[in-house]
Automatic annotation (TrEMBL):
Single GO term (MF): hydrolase activity, acting on carbon-nitrogen (but not peptide) bonds
Keyword Cell division: no
PANTHER family referenced in this protein's UniProt entry, alphabetically: IMIDAZOLONEPROPIONASE, PROTEIN LONG AFTER FAR-RED 3
Keywords assigned by UniProt, alphabetized: Hydrolase
Protein name: Putative TIM-barrel fold metal-dependent hydrolase
Cross-referenced Pfam families: Amidohydro_3
Hydrolase found in the keyword field: yes
The species this protein was found in: Cryptosporangium arvum DSM 44712
Domain Amidohydrolase: 39-479
CDD domains for the chain: YtcJ_like
Length: 481
């Protein structure tokens, strides 16, 4: 059966057009009223865009985050602990909090605050950037760290402890949460995402599809170092379909975290933080090169987390030595000399615009004097870099319209734009939110998003609240308003 989207605006400010879809592919585009098909959907004053894709999601952490206590308003560890005490967990369960901003606290977190308020109830609190996890004594015992001196875990130690904690919840229960949460995404116009959860994603997704059916969005399942050997032995290659997933899940990139984060003061920087530290290099250059080379030779595209400018320089150097393409996740602080290297090396800048507006106060404090090149999306774009937008959910809301509006307006709280010179034009932001697809073209897979009106005429508020009328994945409607 063929489907015709009749009369919608083709792209921002585009002409009214017909888009015909056959067997999941766009087969014809013409002036409104010029084409026909078995099923005709009249769009009226609507705009047809390539499908929106979130380029950076931690799916399991995202669904757990939805079940956690919001502590973003806490101004210190004592206040956060009191807020948690007011939330009684079900018997036998542990308590989870989220979105603390320790970089703005005058008193550091410590397990004694949680122990004093919550006693033997296991408590785990994650920072807004997911690079710090704060445990009480009961929770430390659950993850095999009963003698940890502070209960504050950072970077690799935090990632591994959270993974051990996640294994305490039955996989079937988590898979149900994920199926429920993914069902909401087509209403936002999303047709795909890259899942960078620290887990054996290539095993998890077929299990989820077997239990709950194919996901309503395309999933590119990332690989981390603990599962790299198995992926290579199985002949996995980035972009290929994962068997048993009805074609909706593909092998994603190979993820490495090379440095820390801004909020945790562990992003590896050339200039010091106020405490004279420079952050952390988590993977030495020789080890990074060996891992990336091995993955690339096996057909796996590297996706390297780099936030500080020194980390971005080091990662770009490795890309240059190997001669491979790939992605840098975040690219939050980039030396001016490194900006053109993204385009020269074919490295995608995978960025999350909500970070620029959420972290502006922390950046002004910790990166004082260099914020003109922080979250420098316009500078990267003007230098020819390919930008792809994401949320880093649960760090930021999994909502592509928030990411687009943040990239364009550089503020989300009524304050003047933060470094407005780094704002992206709307068409550039939408292309970046569509995984680099700038237009709907004949021969392309029919992953499409249809929105009411013309986004190019929208105010900031209207852009954030863009009404999605329909979403199609492979020509099938996953959402119709």
């Amino acid at each position: 059966m063929s489907v015709l989207l009749r009369g919608g605006r083709l792209g921002l400010g585009g002409a009214a057009s017909d888009v015909r879809i056959d067997d999941g592919t766009v087969t014809a585009v013409g002036p409104a009223g010029s084409l026909d098909a078995t099923e005709v959907v009249s769009l009226g004053d609507a705009t047809v865009l390539p499908g929106l894709v979130d380029g950076h999601v931690h799916v399991e952490q995202w669904v757990r985050h939805r079940r956690s206590v919001d502590l973003s308003a806490a101004t210190g560890p004592a206040e956060a602990a009191r807020a948690l005490r007011a939330t009684a967990p079900a018997p036998g369960q542990w308590l989870s909090g989220r979105d603390i901003v320790p970089a703005l606290w005058d008193t550091p977190a410590h397990k004694r605050f949680l122990d004093g308020e919550l006693g033997d109830v296991p408590v785990v609190v994650r920072s807004i950037d997911l690079h710090t996890t704060w445990f009480n004594s009961a929770a430390l015992a659950l993850v095999g760290l009963p003698d940890h001196p502070t209960g504050v875990l950072r970077e690799t130690e935090s990632i591994e402890a959270n993974h051990r904690l996640s294994e305490l919840t039955p996989a079937a229960e988590v898979d149900g949460w994920i199926a429920e949460a993914l069902a909401e995404l087509p209403s936002l116009g999303l047709t795909g995402l890259i899942d960078l959860e620290f887990s054996d994603n290539l095993a998890a997704w077929p299990r989820r599809v077997a239990a709950h059916g194919a996901p309503p969005v395309r999933v590119h399942a990332g690989i981390w170092t603990p599962w790299l050997d198995a992926a290579i032995a199985a002949g996995r290659r980035t972009g290929e379909v994962v068997e048993g997933t009805s074609g909706r899940v593909r092998v994603g990139p190979y993820k490495i975290v090379s440095d820390g984060s801004l909020n945790t003061r562990t992003a590896w920087c050339a200039d010091p933080y106020p405490d004279d530290s420079h952050g952390l290099c988590l993977v030495p250059a020789d080890e990074l090169e060996a891992l990336m080379s091995r993955a690339w030779a096996a057909g796996l595209v590297p996706a390297i987390h780099a936030i500080g400018d020194r980390a971005n320089t080091a990662v770009l150097d490795v890309f240059a030595r190997i001669g491979c393409t790939g992605r840098i996740e975040h690219a939050q602080l980039v030396a001016l000399d490194d900006v053109p290297r993204f385009a020269e090396l074919g490295v995608v800048a995978s960025v999350q615009p909500q970070h620029a507006v959420t972290d502006r106060d922390v950046a002004d404090r910790l990166w004082a004097g260099r914020t003109d090149r922080a979250f420098a999306y316009r500078t990267l774009h003007d230098a020819g870099a390919r930008l792809e937008l994401g949320s880093d959910a649960p760090v930021s809301p999994l909502d592509p319209w928030q990411a687009i509006a943040d990239a364009v307006h550089r503020s989300d709280d009524g304050r003047p734009a933060w470094h407005p010179e780094q704002a992206l034009p709307l068409d550039v932001a939408i292309t970046a939110a569509c995984a680099g697809r700038a237009s709907v073209e004949v021969g392309a897979v029919a992953d499409l998003t249809v929105v009411a009106g013309d986004p190019s005429a929208a105010s900031e508020e209207s852009l954030r609240g863009t009404i999605v009328l329909a979403t199609l994945v492979g020509g099938d409607f996953t959402y119709r308003r």
